[in-house]
Amino acid sequence: MRSLKQTKSVRRNRRKKQKQPLPWKQLLARLLRVTVFCGLVTFLLFGAVVGGRLLLGSGYFEVTTMRVENNLRLLSDEVLALSDIEQGSNIFDLDLDMIGRKIEKNPWVASARVERVFPNEVTICIEEREPQAIIRLGTLYYVDVSGEIFKMLDAGDRLDYPLISGIDRQLLLDQPEQARELLLGALGLLTELAQRKVFSLDQVSELRVTLQEGITLYTYRGGVPVRFGQNGYRTKLDRLERIYRELKPRLAAIDYIDLNVVERVIVKLESHRNRGRG
Hints:
The chain is of the alpha/beta class. The chain has helices at residues 4-13, 24-56, 76-83, 96-103, 169-174, 176-194, 233-247, and strands at 65-69, 109-117, 121-128, 131-137, 139-144, 149-152, 163-165, 204-210, 214-219, 225-229, 254-258, 266-269.
């Protein structure tokens, strides 16, 4: 059993904890720095907003220059008229996507990209459509390499393109996928012909395309039907070119040429049909 003296001695040996005073000066200095920093940031933001408004209203960002790029067929003034951009408009007020859509309403324009060039210039870069053929749909239309039927021919439009017939409006409405497949097949054959030298694109006046018979090509000279069918156009052209130099002087006496028999070219001679083509 511990004695009373021993207990008192142990208590006297314990160190008394002393309360530390708060570092008021440091806290006040830190608070002052934070306050000054927040005030400075607020002042800068306010100044930026006011300065920005003054700059926007000063005319510094008013459109003074408009450039059209990549236009070959359309005049720059035509494209600018389609854009409806007015000189003096604020460059930030322009809806670039809407302006592009306005320009793309022109049938010759495949796409239009409109960009701001700071501080006061607008650039319009367009991609124009290039006709690959003319398609007969009651009236005549241009068609581009992607199969897009994009413009009805007007007076003065060029006619020196191969003619595609056989695809009518009703087929386009009722079976658009099949009609597009036929049209792309005809355009593929035209692309292949453009790379040939013996039987080339300038030898062709018309391509007639139907679901039942595929493609029948008519020669520019004599209007001779050349039956290509549904596919394998490159191979069939290779066979035709092997004998075409011999056939060419005799086109007036040829009824038709059939390339649908494997490894053969069938030539039907001496017909009195009325071709009415070429």
